Structures are given as structure tokens and as C-alpha cells.
Amino acid sequence: MDLSFDPADVSLPSGHYIGGRHRPATGGVTLYRPSDGVAFADCPIGDENLVDEAVQTALAALKASGWASCRPRERVNAMHRWADLIEAEAETLARLEAVASTRPVAQAIEADVAITAEQIRFFAEMADKEGGDLVPTAESQMGMILTEPYGVVGAITPWNFPIAMAGWKLGPALAAGNAVVLKPSEMTPFSTVYLAMLAERAGLPAGLINIVLGDGPTTGNAITGHPDIGKISFTGSTRAGQAIMANVARIGVKPMTLELGGKSPQIVFADADMDLAADCVTRGIIANAGQVCVAGSRLLVEESAAEALAAAIARRMAEIRPGATWEAETGFPPIISQRQIARIAEIVQASVAQGAKVMAGGARIDRSGYFYQPTLLGEVRADSPAVTEEIFGPVLTMQTFRSEDEALMLARHPTYGLAAGVYTRDLSRAMRVTKRIEAGTVWVNRYGRSRDHILPTGGYKSSGIGKDLGREAYRANRRQKSVLIDL
Ligand code: NAD
User: Fold this and answer.
1) Sequence ranges of the chain with CATH classification 3.40.309.10
2) Average confidence (pLDDT) over 287-300
3) How far away, in angstroms, is 237 Cα from ligand 1 center?
């Protein structure tokens, strides 16, 4: 089956989606297709009043439907029906994703949409298996921990994996008995709206998922600052995470999970399987053109292996297949925006001006849209912006080390601690290094998540607070109440 499509043929859901109804709206942010730079739609900006309406709708839907108080298996069944529909409508979802974002349609079907359905099933199944606890007490007492949903969860997602990020938020929040007000990125709103429409078609109560479109300063702020939103679930940049904490602190205190930025190291020792390391390191920086929170953007390689590994990575980088996201054969996607590609070019140029050596790429790809070559920079200074800043593009820096201690010293980033890769055949060394790395996730002789969803994901330091995925994400969507009874 040829998955290619004409972007002009895609019918976009219009406006916000509140209480199971579209709310047409015009104006707002002009959207340009990253694949060809053509302006194709607007994203309206929902204001404080609209956010309040969405929150009140969510509260009313919770009350009317009994979503939080029903037999948990009813939630499980409804969410399975939703996952079935997501799978049945994979092509439509993937087109909505591909037209606006950097996700190639084939990858969107095979990975993003499929994973979203899997995760909704994964979290649904927790609804009737995860519970509270009876705790040891004196014989004359009974102590227990009850868990309860928060009510309305406020979720905000980024543009780099729009539908998958919406799944990360909606799956655990709904399974745990909450309603959700979700704001997708203003650059990629459509697949998320459609996802919510499918939920209602699957029988989830109208108003349980409300999608308010808009930007960070207006809509995002209105969500995080709303007094009736019990919990915030955010994925995006560290800068926006800081702003959210400040905004919440302005009105009070609220629990939040924050999945933020990273600048993840990939450490290759000379005893590693070099073909495997070259494959994984290359994939770790070219996947979604480096626009991945866990992009392995800093290669740290033992000095004796550096030359051969750099050549192997450069060869693999040359094999990419750039193309529009609506072409089935595309392997390497565009950068999200003109602004973002200009930033990538600026950081590469600044690093080169400081003495970095371009070992692969280093320039835009000559075609319409926003495409940047996979780039390998050697001889980078430790304070070069390519080493210190989260670039969110296909730019890999290479630094060399002579000892385990030096590798760990280089791996340490003052701000971020999201993920890391370690490549070695020496299991003892792998474990020693893993224990000493400051990161929320470490992959050994691989780079990237599996599709099991059970391992939680989240950052150390300014890469975040709390976890998405795993049991931890479900538990984060319920609050604990300690009860002690004198018998
Ligand atoms: P961003 O922070 O600019 O925007 C993310 C979302 O937050 C958008 O919906 C945006 O409108 C909203 N937003 C921005 N400012 C806000 C504010 N003050 N209050 C409320 N909402 C606000 O990030 P982006 O450019 O969309 O995404 C890229 C970033 O996301 C990178 O830093 C990347 O590392 C991070 N990310 C992290 C993870 C993770 O799991 N840790 C996953 C994906 C992306």
C-alpha cells in the first residue's frame, strides 16, 4: 500500500474541541508545513474564559458520567475500544500528524500511532489492578492508604511527537479516573483534536477530554494557573517548565510532572562493538532529525577508537533519505520551522568559528522546506554552544577521553540529566558507569526506548520532575490519602 498523500487533500479538524463539540475559531498563529514551507492553516489562541469553560465542562462530565467512581473495568473497556478505533483510523491520524509536523507518514503509522494505541491499552489495564494499600499497625488499629483521582488534569504537549505525547498524558490521567484539559503545541494541533474525537466515538463521556488550542503565554498560562485544575502534566522545554512553576507558585501550590529538555551523552569505549555503536549513535541523533528530547547529541569516545567511529558515523549520516513527511519513502524529516533551522545553523557556525571541525554535514539541505544535514562536529571546545545547548536538530558533537573518570566528567551536564548511552563489552564497566551517570534513563549497548512502556521516563536535575510511562505515570495521576482507624 502506498502511504504517500497530497497535503492539500487533508481535511483538518477546525478549532477547539470542548464537551464533545468543535468550537470553530479563526486567526491566531499561522502554520507553515515544515516539508515545503507553505502556509496551510491557523491555530487559534484560546483565552482564559475558554480554558475556564473547558475546565467546568470537564468537572461536569466527571460528575455526570461517574468516570471516577464506576467499576474500574468499565474504564478499561472504554479505553480499549478507543485504542481499537485509533488503530482502525491510523492512516487518518498519521496524515494529520504528518501534514503539520516533522513525522514522516510511514513512521507515524508504524510507530507514533501504533505506540499511542498500545500505551492507552497499557494504562487502561492499570485501572483495575493498581490500588491502595493496607499497612502494618497495632492489632487495635487499621491503617490504609486510599488513592483517588485529582479531578481535572491540565496537560500541555510539545510539537516533536504530537500524538504520542498526547497519549503519554491522556492514557494514565484517564485510566486513573481523571478528566483532562489538554493544550497541544500551537504548531501541531490537529492529530490531538482527532484523537479526542475518536475517544468520544469509542464511548468515553463527552467532556472528559477537552482540547483547547493556543500558545504558551495565553492558553498555557491559563491552564497552569486555573484553580480547579488539580495536577499539571507538562512536556516541553526547561524554560517553559520554569515559567510554569513560577505561574503556579503565583496562585498557590499544585503537583506537577515536568518532562523537560536534555543534552544526552553517548559514551563509547574502545572495547565496544563498533558497528553496533555507530548504528546506535547515528540513529540517536538523526531520528526525527534530532528533534527528540533524548537525542544523543554528545558523542564521547575513547581516544583510540575516535577516528574509525567518526568515519563510520559520517558514512551512515550520508545515507539518509530526506523527503517530505507525506512521501512514503521519507526516512529523514525536516526541521519544524524557519526559526528553528536558523537557530541550528547559528549554533553550528558559532562552534565552527570557535575551532570545531565539520566532519559531516554542516549546512542546510538544498530543497524547499526546512531541511538540515546530519552534522558531526569534532574538536569542539567544552564551552562551545554545540556542546552546552540543547540544539534540537541533527547535530552531534564528538569529544574524546582517555579514562572512565574523564568520560564521566565530560558526560556530566550542569543543567540537564535526561538520558545517556553507554557502549562497552565489559559488563562491570557498564554497571559502574551507569551508576555514576546523572540521568533519568541509561541505555547500554542500545539507544532508545523499547515498546514495553513499563520503564518510566523522566529527567534528573533541570530535565524534569516525576515520570511519564510505567506504573509511576499512573500513580502520579492519583493522590494518596492515609486513613487510620481505632477499632
Ligand atoms: P516548548 O516548551 O516551547 O513548548 C511545549 C509546550 O508548552 C507547547 O504546547 C507550548 O505552547 C507550551 N508552553 C510554552 N510556554 C509555556 C508556558 N509559559 N506555560 C504553559 N505552556 C507553555 O517546547 P517545544 O519547542 O514544543 O518542544 C521541544 C522541547 O520539549 C525540548 O526542550 C524537548 O527536550 C522537550 N521535550 C521533552 C520530552 C521529555 O520527555 N523530557 C519529550 C519531548 C520534548
Assistant:
1) 265-452
2) 98
3) 4
